[in-house]
Amino acid sequence: MTMRVLVLFLAAATLVSARQPVRFKKAMVVAQEPHAADAGVDILKSGGNAVDAAVAVGFALAVTYPVAGNLGGGGFALIRMADGRTAFLDFRERAPLSATRNMYLDPGGNPTRDSVAGWRAAGVPGSVRGFEAMHRKFGSRPWSKLVAPSVKLAKQGFVLSDHATRSLRANAKDLEPFPESKRIFLNNGRFFEMGDRLRQPELAATLARIAKRGARDFYVGETARILAEQCAANGGHITQEDLRQYKAIERPVLKGTYKGYEVLAISPPSSGGVGILQMMGVLEGSGYEKTGPGSARAIHMLAEAMRRYYADRAEHLGDPDFHKVPLRGLFAADYVGRLRSGIDPDHATPSAQVKAGTPAPGAEPTETTHFSIVDAQGNAVALTYTINGGFGNGVTVPKLGFLLNNEMDDFAVKPGVPNMFQLIQGEGNAIQPKKTPLSSMTPTMLVKDGKLRLIAGAPGGSRIITGVLQVILNVVDHGMNIQEAIDAPRFHHQWMPDKLMLEKGFSPDTVELLRSRGHTIDSISGVANVNGIVLDGTWLAGAWDGRGDGKVAGY
Ligand code: DON
User: Fold this and answer.
1) Is 368 known to be catalytic?
2) What's the gap in Å between 185 CA and the centre of ligand 1?
3) Contact 65, 165 (CB under 8 A)
């Protein structure tokens, strides 16, 4: 081979070679912020298990990733222990006792901004109770040791990355109206530069109390008292009684199968697990994957599955304690078979013609962040938690130093009218006291031959479900490594608006072929921000999503 040919060959090889995931031998934490990922690995190295590490990462993100990490929000944890035990802990926000169906409508019956910005938008936070519940059930290290890293990060401060300072600037207009948010996160209007240290003494004091007194402090102690006092003074709804009554709830783990894998997913009030299982059911046996990833036919088939699921989501999904969800019927074989046979491989079905289906009866027994953790024993946690919008409702609680959520907007503030993710939602998700708003958060695991093989999850509002699904399909159906699977361009369809939304990176020819099938194409900046771990029996391979920031830490 001449030198010139060799150089050309090497250049071509570089072009086609895939980005490799980060590999560690024993244990791994993948999170959207490096300090928090490291805090988790420190716990693992000191003998803590995956659940201990998850509690530490959850608290650390509340300090180092204020755009989504939180004490003032809520989330979902999917846990699988090495002995095969599984659990789904729902610690999502609940509607306050004083909530009413039309609380966010103006006198003309139109939605206001109050479900999105400011004190009134907050639901009763669940994260601290959630971490406590996880720790009680599976944890092995003392609670105070797990909260300690976050106390230190808040007290001593941490160095802001380029990503962090950009995220603060980008959300300045939502933070500015609230004096504590402006003072702490916008450096009193002067903004932070990359390399500056962010210290949060009020938050450090709150965390130190939680470290010492446990979740009681947040729900019936001093933090509860101050939070309720501040809400009362500023027109918020959360009272001491709301906090006292808050409970994390253990709910069923959904188990399905896809191509020989057992799929572990979460049940309502997440709409994610049932969505993943329904769409996988529609795709399995359709042969959609034969034309290859990113081909017009594969995208079309997936988009049609997505369109149908989001129609069902709007009608059938809600908090199962308040609304009868035909859960297993929505992914039962005969129902998904009917959905599959309704898909025309050559033509898009206009969403106006797609109505929520009638699922099989009788099958019933009854800005967000995600991290994935596996410990050296093989215990695993997939945890997604959120304050909904970036920096939640914009309010930092004076004296407590944490941001509140705007999760009340995840309810159908007015059934039939789109919310901030343009999701249309139905009566089943209307506001009621103590009810949990429907969520799209989708922490998911795949198991094969009794062994954990994959963990994935993401932030991204309504796009979480389709984002997580595509990453899993890229691994299972297209043989990609987890980094390639995450890097590959993604798309999204959510029934209404009737648009197939594409990230950058699809070939113009493919886009034309999709148009010719009748899809209305739109562009989208990013379909979720997925991270995950694949286990091949020898190594752990982890990847974070370049659509945001992150770190794979491990040993
Ligand atoms: O639970 C949900 O579905 C939403 N609150 C998630 C919000 C979200 O992912 C925003 N982050 N990008």
Assistant:
1) yes
2) 21
3) no
Residue 431 lies in a domain: no
Q: What is the CA radius of gyration of the chain?
A: 23
Residue 325 is assigned to a structural domain of this protein: yes
C-alpha 240/C-alpha 227 separation (Å) is 8
Kindly give the pairing relationship between strand 521-523 and strand 500-502.
parallel
What is the domain range of residue 224? 26-249+367-414
Does 205 share its domain with 322? no
In this structure, how many other beta carbons lie within 10 angstroms of the beta carbon of residue 254? 23
User: Of all protein residues, whose CA lies closest to atom 2 belonging to ligand 1?
Assistant: 439
Length of the chain: 555
Closest atom of ligand 1 to 68 CA is 11
Query: Is residue 196 domain-shared with residue 272, that is, in the same domain?
Result: no
Structural domains of the chain, count? 2
Q: Whose CA is nearest to atom 8 of ligand 1?
A: 461
Report the alpha-carbon distance of residue 530 to residue 351 in Å, rounded: 27
Q: How far apart are CA 133 and CA 146, in angstroms?
A: 14
Q: Looking at the structure, do residues 177 and 194 belong to the same domain, yes or no?
A: yes
Ligand 1 first shell, C-beta below 6 A: 367-368, 386, 388, 407, 410, 439-441, 459-461, 464
Alpha helices per DSSP H over 87-221: 127-138, 143-156, 162-170, 172-175, 179-185, 201-213, 216-220
Please enumerate in sequence order all residues whose Cβ is within 8 A of that of 229, keeping only pairs 6 or more positions apart, or say none.
none
Does 80 lie in the same domain as 199?
yes
Residue with tokens 């990490």: 69
3-class DSSP string for 487-541: HCCCEECCCCCCCEEECCCCCHHHHHHHHHCCCCEEECCCCCCCEEEEECCCCEE
pLDDT for 362: 55
232 and 100 belong to one structural domain:
yes
Residue 434 in any domain: the answer is no
How many whole angstroms from 118 Cα to the centroid of ligand 1? 17
Whether 232 is in a domain gets the answer yes
CATH number, domain at 326? 3.60.20.40
387 and 476 belong to one structural domain: no
Query: How far, in Å, CA of 169 to CA of 166, rounded?
Result: 5
pTM for the whole thing? 0.95
Of all protein residues, the one whose alpha carbon is nearest to atom 10 of ligand 1 is 367
**Which pLDDT does position 440 carry in this prediction?**
97
Give me the pLDDT at residue 361, please. 64
Q: Do 381 and 245 fall into the same domain?
A: yes
Whether residue 355 sits in one domain with residue 384? no
Q: What is the pLDDT of residue 17?
A: 62
Residues of the chain falling short of pLDDT 50: 1-3, 5-15, 364-366
